[in-house]
Amino acid sequence: MFASVIKPVILPKFGSLHKKAISDEGITECVRLAEALPGIVVKASFTVNLRKPDPGQLLGDGKVKQLYTFFSEKKISLTIIDGVLTPVQQRNLERLWGVKVIDRTALILEIFGARAMSREGGLQVELAHLNYQKSRLVRSWTHLERQRGGAGFLGGPGETQIEADKRAINARISQIKQALTKVVRTRNLHRIARKKIPYPTMALVGYTNAGKSCVFNRLTKGSNLVKDMLFATLDPKMSNLQLSKGKKIIVSDTVGFVSNLPTHLVAAFRATLEEVTTADLILHVRDVSTTNFEAQGQAVNTVLRTLGVDIHDKDIIEIWNKADKLEDCKKQYMTLDTGIIDQRRVVVSATTGKGFEELLILIETFFKDQTEQEEIFVPFSESKSRSWLYKNNLVIEEKVDSRGSKIFVEWTEVQKKKFKADCVYSTSN
């Protein structure tokens, strides 16, 4: 299917300063989003500068006619508007151009629908789809008479079909929510079970295609799907990261964020993204080679705030990824090289592996700060407790006397509570 991408840009009221920069901003991302759908070939992309959007068709009459001629010549059957369309605007543009028209929200929903592999992901995407469609039923049923119902010549079918469709959609939404409630309950049980395991947790977040999966694989020596494609990873993955001295951390890879992420999707994927809110440490993976570096970072922070994460209070380490793609002149200008910038930022290349030693140092430093050292006494009769400490790699040093062992441990508060729950006895010296 041949497609085109149109980015409407509302120009400032006064003057045309930075007109081209404003017009070109972000259209490349929308093109890549479109190409992420199977069977879609983007034949052309346009930026259209507007002083004021037309309430009925978004664009002016002249531009609409010009694009109609272009679409006919190039045999384009799908047009994507990089923005939000009202149902009326969508209906009118489809009628005037004779092509299928969708907006940015519908595009992202289509991508998620194509990529959702798990049952949970499928339910979440379907829920978001239905909530989106429910507000656009009027567009779908324009052939119906919008007049009062009743018998006789003065009556008419009214909105009966629309109402029937609304009821059907609402019924399906209710079913999906019930199914997701069970999924959420199961996920919460798994989360509670993980909390009982004496390992801290760490979640990777970031803009789509920032390289989260590649970073995840480097850290965990895993084999997550790595592809230069937006939203290549949709369903979350979890694995273990083993630090020095045998310490383990549970690492989760999450769905990529994007600017103007539909609220339906944020709400639908809240259960999945709750892994981020409960993590001890968040790794924010950023693509340092992109021209939209700052804007992408702000978009991720916006979604985190939507999830209830206080980005100023939460423990977050920024991973500036793809340093290998920086041009020499740009690298010098940004004074960047792989390695630690400060205790909250590190520059890496997940492709080459540079900077990952420094990243592991930051992670280890963080979790070391979250631990405390303590001396406990374990009598010979409590061999189970001694084995538990060694099994979980908590022992720093052990001294044996006639009564038992004085064991020096380094652990988190969670590990300490887990130990006391599993190994009930006096820990006094």
Which helices and strands, and how do they pair?
Blueprint: E1 2-10, H1 19-24, H2 27-35, E2 41-50, H3 61-74, E3 78-81, H4 87-97, E4 100-103, H5 104-115, H6 119-134, H7 137-140, H8 160-196, E5 201-206, H9 212-220, E6 237-242, E7 248-253, H10 263-268, H11 270-278, E8 281-287, H12 293-306, E9 316-321, H13 328-333, E10 339-342, E11 345-347, H14 356-369, E12 372-379, H15 383-391, E13 395-400, E14 404-411, H16 413-422
Parallel strand pairs: 1-2, 1-3, 3-4, 5-7, 5-8, 8-9, 9-11
Antiparallel strand pairs: 6-7, 10-11, 12-14, 13-14
Helix pairs in contact: 5-6, 6-8
Description of the molecule:
It is a single chain. The protein is of the alpha/beta class and 429 residues long. The protein folds into three domains: 2-111, GTPase HflX, N-terminal domain (Rossmann fold); 198-369, P-loop containing nucleotide triphosphate hydrolases (Rossmann fold), CATH 3.40.50; 372-422. 43% of the residues lie in helices and 20% in strands. It has 16 helices and 14 strands. The chain has helices at residues 19-24, 27-35, 61-74, 87-97, 104-115, 119-134, 137-140, 160-196, 212-220, 263-268, 270-278, 293-306, 328-333, 356-369, 383-391, 413-422, and strands at residues 2-10, 41-50, 78-81, 100-103, 201-206, 237-242, 248-253, 281-287, 316-321, 339-342, 345-347, 372-379, 395-400, 404-411. A seven-stranded mixed β-sheet has the order 6-7-5-8-9-11-10, sandwiched between helices. Strand 3, helix 4 and strand 4 form a beta-alpha-beta unit. Helix 5 packs antiparallel against helix 6 (119-134) and helix 6 (119-134) packs antiparallel against helix 8. The longest helix has 37 residues, at 160-196. It is elongated. The chain starts with a strand and ends in a 7-residue tail after the last helix. The relative contact order is 0.08. The model is unreliable at 16-23 and 139-155 (pLDDT under 50).
